[in-house]
Design goal:
Layout lengths: L1 H6 L11 E4 L4 H11 L5 E4 L2 H13 L9 H9 L2 E4 L2 H9 L6 E2 L6 H11 L6 E6 L5 H9 L3 E6 L1 E4 L5 H11 L5 E4 L2 H13 L3 H7 L4 E4 L2 H9 L13 H24 L21 H4 L25 H6 L20 H7 L4 H5 L2 H15 L3 E3 L15 E4 L3 E4 L21 H13 L5 E7 L1 H10 L7 H9 L1 H25 L3 E6 L7 H20 L6 E5 L6 H7 L3 E3 L6 H8 L4 E3 L11 H15 L5 E2 L12 H14 L3
Parallel strand pairs: 2-3, 2-5, 3-4, 5-6, 8-9, 10-13, 13-14, 14-15, 15-16, 16-17, 17-18
Antiparallel strand pairs: 1-7, 11-12
Helix pairs in contact: 2-3, 3-4, 3-5, 8-10, 9-11, 17-18, 18-21, 19-21, 20-21, 21-22, 22-23, 25-26
Length: about 650
């Protein structure tokens, strides 16, 4: 851990907090061996690598006072059973012994993940299950197994204790209390327990908890986070994969921002030991060194106490300056779908709600929006919502079906449907405006917030098709054969979207983007005749009331770019199918551009990601007005660390 911290530019303070002590007697282990050899166990759950090794060593040396068994007898008996491993460490130990695990629990290897894996692949009802324990009993796991009909044998192997020399831990405690520590990293619940156990002995438990309000707390995973929370603290960062390398690397790349945010919050009397991102309040006149000193190297930014002399706002942001084609110290970057299923933190939030539920709960929508900024370090936030929320005020039923995506149960198919087409009250979407207000209040002032809507053609296509489509046959047929129905639908939709975007801007959106995900299915002639007039009216309806930048983005057909530019927009989004240099030249340099690396590049190595990033930056030629983005959105299976790698690459490679 210390070497990893040093490698990432930190000053490592190593404070051992725990040691393993074998149980003084091995009665439970001997009872396990007896049951094992008698064929009275069906499944063994191995929770740790150390515990697995200690258990095998204990029971293979001695079974009881009269009988001794060698290791081969124990291994032979285990080979007949189903072996479950909570992560890679017990797997490695079993393989050393020539044993093959029946089931390995996927990351992050929590007890909930273990139970879920058993439910789907190895039901335990009626099974005799032995659980190799470590430190303390996980009562929730035992209860979960028993509630599923398992007969459970607990097999404790070792206990945790404070280290023999507690002085380094005591010194670390005082460093936190005295404000001399910036980051504390925890890899187990026991570390937290022992830290507070020692603090209680020294009479400084409350002072330690108070000191943590100004220290970044990094947790290796959900189990450690649970322990941190139980002691009244808040884990500020948890990597998507529970490995020490990820913990150190990810915390290092976000620490400057998170520390600035947490200490600013503490100075505003916000209780940072018990808070959410939406609780953040930035002081009037806040100034971040990231915007105050544009010439400093981004990777070497240092924490700065808020400067109350010069107020900054989102209009000073790197992102908005690029939208206005003003010079910037580096190329700003944000990513479509930067909050999404590829992140475990997002999936955890989604567990308790539906997609529509998340969109319609302003606090959750704002929390997810802010989460992406904190974790990625991007230069703009985009409010978490969906392009299809606007269909409900028009009278359509919307649902998100697993495996099928959005489904509209009552599609618009003929002229007869005009009679049931609503006019659309934009206040039916007030939850979006509330989410924007909450986000803008909690978002760092120098980071822009983007609102959005779906482009008329794309949203109308969903309404007509009733969901996803391969050829948009129903949509195009109406467009060609029934222009009255088509234009009525598009007109009602655009009327609503004009008000929708303007109300987002009033709520605090600094820019808005129009997503035309399906326009690439159209020929230039058809786009010009059936779609462009409606897009133009939408953009004009926004620009007549506001000066915020409008981003016009479509995918699939580069031939539409000149027509999109004619329709309007301060920034033209480019997908990966077009050469950025040629596209910008053809559009004219009076337009800013956004894009356009192929999203699939993010499945490659860090070296390849940087190589491809440099290619896109070279095509932009350092010209003011380039905003880096993917050519479309992040996919659900994208490696989170690669997404962060792209953001870092853009910032580092584009520094002027």
């Amino acid at each position: 851990m210390a070497s990893l911290i040093t490698r990432h530019g930190g000053n490592a303070i190593s404070a051992p907090s725990m040691r393993e002590i074998a149980n003084p007697t091995h009665e439970e282990a001997f009872a396990f061996a007896k049951a094992l050899l008698a064929g009275e166990i069906d499944i063994v759950i191995h929770l740790t690598g150390v515990g697995t090794r200690m258990l095998i060593d204990a029971v293979s040396a001695k079974h009881d006072k009269e009988t001794m068994h060698d290791k081969e007898a124990i291994i032979a008996a285990l080979r007949k059973l189903k072996l479950v491993c909570r992560g890679p460490k017990p797997v490695a130990v079993l393989r050393e012994l020539g044993l093959k695990p029946t089931l390995e629990v996927d990351e992050p290897n929590t007890w909930q993940d273990l139970l879920a894996a058993l439910d789907s692949k190895l039901p335990v009802s009626g099974q005799r299950v032995a659980v190799q324990e470590y430190g303390i009993t996980n009562s929730k796991l035992i209860e979960g197994l028993e509630s599923r009909g398992a007969s459970v044998m607990r097999v404790p192997v070792y206990q945790w204790a404070l280290p023999e020399d507690v002085e380094p831990l005591r010194q670390a405690t005082q460093s936190i209390i005295q404000g001399k520590m910036d980051v504390a990293l925890f890899t187990s619940t026991t570390q937290v327990t022992h830290l507070f156990q020692l603090a209680k002995q020294d009479g400084c438990e409350d002072a330690l908890r108070e000191g943590f309000k100004r220290v970044i707390i990094g947790s290796i995973g959900p189990i450690a986070t649970e322990g941190i929370t139980e002691y009244g603290l808040h884990a500020d960062y948890e990597p998507d994969s529970p490995h020490m390398m990820n913990l150190v690397r990810d915390t290092a790349r976000t620490a400057h921002h998170l520390l600035e945010k947490k200490r600013t919050a503490a100075s505003q009397t916000i209780n940072t030991n018990h808070w959410q991102r939406i609780d953040m309040r930035w002081p009037v006149g806040f100034s971040s060194i990231a915007t105050k000193n544009d010439q400093s190297e981004i990777s070497n930014l240092k924490f700065q106490i808020p400067n109350l002399k010069s107020e900054i706002t989102s209009s000073d942001s790197i992102f908005l300056r690029a939208c206005r084609r003003e010079p910037t110290p580096y190329t700003p970057v944000w990513l479509m779908r930067q909050a999404g299923r590829y992140q475990r933190a997002y999936r955890d939030i989604r567990k308790g709600t539906t997609m529509l539920g998340l969109c319609k709960t302003p606090d959750l929508s704002a929390e997810v929006t802010l989460m992406a900024v904190d974790r990625l370090g991007v230069d703009a936030a985009i409010i978490f919502s969906d392009i299809l929320t606007v269909v409900e005020p028009l009278g359509f039923s919307l649902d998100f079906v697993k495996g099928d995506g959005p489904v509209i149960a009552n599609p618009f198919r003929s002229r007869a449907d005009i009679a049931r087409l609503g006019t659309g009250d934009p206040m039916d979407l007030s939850y979006v405006y509330d989410a924007i207000r909450i986000t803008r209040r909690a978002l760092r002032p120098d980071i822009a917030l983007i609102g959005f809507c779906g482009a008329p053609f794309t949203v109308a296509s969903y309404i007509i098709e009733g969901g996803k489509s391969k050829d948009y046959a129903k949509t195009k047929t109406m467009m060609f054969r029934d222009p009255v129905s088509w234009n009525t639908l598009m007109t009602r939709l655009v009327d609503l979207q004009i008000e929708y975007l303007n109300l987002q801007i009033q709520a605090g959106a600094d820019a808005v983007q129009i997503f035309d995900s399906w326009a690439g299915s159209l020929s230039p002639d058809h786009y010009r005749e059936y779609v462009q007039p409606h897009v133009r009216r939408l953009i004009e309806g926004v620009k007549v009331k506001s000066k915020v930048p409008v981003i016009n983005f479509a995918t699939g057909n580069p031939a539409l770019l000149p027509l999109m530019a004619e329709a309007g927009g301060d920034v033209i989004g480019l997908d990966w199918r077009v050469d950025l240099r040629e596209a910008w030249k053809n559009l004219g340099y009076d337009k800013a551009v956004m894009g356009n690396i192929d999203p699939i590049v993010l499945f490659c190595s860090p070296a390849e990601i940087r190589k491809q990033t440099q290619i896109i930056l070279d095509k932009a030629e350092g010209r003011p007005g380039h905003i880096f983005n993917l050519g479309h959105g992040i996919t659900p299976d994208m490696p989170p660390e690669n997404v962060a790698e792209l953001v870092d690459a853009v910032h580092e490679l584009s520094r002027r």
